Amino acid sequence: MQLRSFTSSISCFVAAVMIVAAPSYAAPVTFSASSGNLAASATFEVVAGKLQVTLRNTSPSDVMVPADVLTGVFFDIVGGGPTLTPDSAILGIGSIVVFGSTDPGNVVGGEWAYAASLAGAPNGATRGISSSGLGLFGNGNFPGSNLQGPTSTDGLQYGITSAGDNTATGNTPVTGTNALIKNSVVFTLTGIGGDFNPAAVIGNVSFQYGTSLSEPNIPEPATAGMAALGAACAFRRRRPRAAR
What we know:
Layout: H1 2-20, E1 29-35, E2 38-47, E3 50-57, E4 70-77, E5 85-91, E6 96-98, E7 113-115, E8 127-130, E9 160-161, E10 180-182, E11 184-190, H2 198-201, E12 202-209, E13 217-219, H3 221-238
Parallel strand pairs: 9-10
Antiparallel strand pairs: 1-2, 2-3, 3-11, 4-8, 4-12, 5-11, 6-10, 7-8, 12-13
Helix pairs in contact: 1-3
């Protein structure tokens, strides 16, 4: 019994190490997740000494209701990480704004916010980028104009609709009431050091939809796997010994 318990503990440790292990060079990393008709990805990479985050709604499905619109991404940086400052937010290549406009240069930063030291975010994440307040984000703090009210990040406006969206179908909030982005935004943040390696330190990534934390949040598989592993290992630690 002792050998079995020791082996289980080692398995938990090895699995955890395998999940977080990564190369030592500054490699980009892409996290993807899907559930039903929802699918998204976030690529973290170092570009010109800054952290670049490309957030995409990759679903081929039509967006019919606000809960189908991608409005944010949550994440952690191992060890706490650096203090990041929002630098820019622009449309991804081939992306457009429907039912609205951008600032010159495809800038949409005034409609998005970055926040750190979060409390109450999904999966306990401490950082995030969002176009909706979600009870966690204040005013848009990437450079740019408030393109559609209100002045703070709130509501559905400038969320990311899917690659496969037919913008003529769906309920009113997704067919003209709110400006939406189809289908990606590129965010840049300053403050990383020269040795910052996204593949080694970014984790606990999840994708938020709609305008409330009660709406879908989809963790990428490694995050979900780590949570399941932690629960299993905690159960093993708590399980009382059988009577002898």
